[in-house]
UniProtKB/TrEMBL annotation:
The gene is efp. Keywords: Cytoplasm, Elongation factor, Protein biosynthesis. GO terms for biological process: peptide biosynthetic process. GO terms for molecular function: translation elongation factor activity. This is Elongation factor P. The lineage of its organism: Bacteria, Pseudomonadati, Pseudomonadota, Alphaproteobacteria, Rickettsiales. NCBIfam families: efp (TIGR00038), PRK00529.1 (NF001810). It holds the Pfam family EFP. Belongs to the elongation factor P family. Involved in peptide bond synthesis. Stimulates efficient translation and peptide-bond synthesis on native or reconstituted 70S ribosomes in vitro. Probably functions indirectly by altering the affinity of the ribosome for aminoacyl-tRNA, thus increasing their reactivity as acceptors for peptidyl transferase. It is found in: Cytoplasm. Pathway: Protein biosynthesis; polypeptide chain elongation.
Length: 189
């Protein structure tokens, strides 16, 4: 199946020179003053994990990999593996942690529903929910009179990731975080 370069998104998988390539970063659409518009892609080879940057014309069509997507529930993990159970057929699968981005692994929570992409029955990618709710473990104390102005302070979350949050938040507050870029969305009410 062909897909327009303008329609590509982070997480899409394309076939290029017989290799499966994951779009690792949001495609950058560029319209230079001279010359045609193009899309700059940061691609990651699924097998070798090497990253490359490539420019394609915005009018180009690329081969999108034919993937089968299934929903799974995250069960648990050990030092080397992640364990999931299918929501339809209840089959359990074990995936090697080293096959996945460490940043994504930090957002996995017990019981979380995720989607796993399969290419020719091999699991190659998993897709997290767009947001997760986490508790603040450490942050500077609230400054009296602080508002939700454009100033932010660092906060360590329960999963070990540090993000920038508004100054009125405290330790123990729960916040919604985007899994795509680890950014603060809102405080849980």
């Amino acid at each position: 199946m062909k897909i327009s370069a303008n329609s590509l998104k982070i997480g899409n998988i394309i076939v290029q020179d017989g290799k499966l390539m994951l779009i690792a970063k949001a495609p950058e659409h560029v319209k230079p003053g001279k010359g045609p518009a193009y899309v700059q892609l940061e691609l990651k080879d699924i097998k070798t994990k090497t990253k490359t940057v490539q420019r394609v014309s915005s009018s180009d069509y690329l081969e999108k990999a034919h993937l089968e997507q299934k929903e799974y529930q995250f069960l648990y993990q050990d030092e080397k593996s992640l364990f999931f159970m299918g929501t339809q057929d209840f089959d359990q699968i074990e995936l090697d942690k080293s096959d996945f981005d460490k940043g994504m692994l930090a957002f996995l929570q017990d019981g979380m529903l995720i989607k796993i992409d399969f290419f020719e029955s091999d699991p190659i990618n998993f897709i997290l929910p767009s947001t997760v709710t986490l508790e603040i473990s450490e942050t500077d104390p609230v400054i009296k009179g602080a508002t939700a102005a454009s100033s932010y302070k660092p906060a360590l979350l329960e999963n070990g990731i540090t993000i920038k949050v508004p100054p009125y938040l405290n330790i123990g507050d729960k916040v919604v975080v985007k899994t795509e870029d680890s950014s603060f969305v809102e405080r849980v009410k």
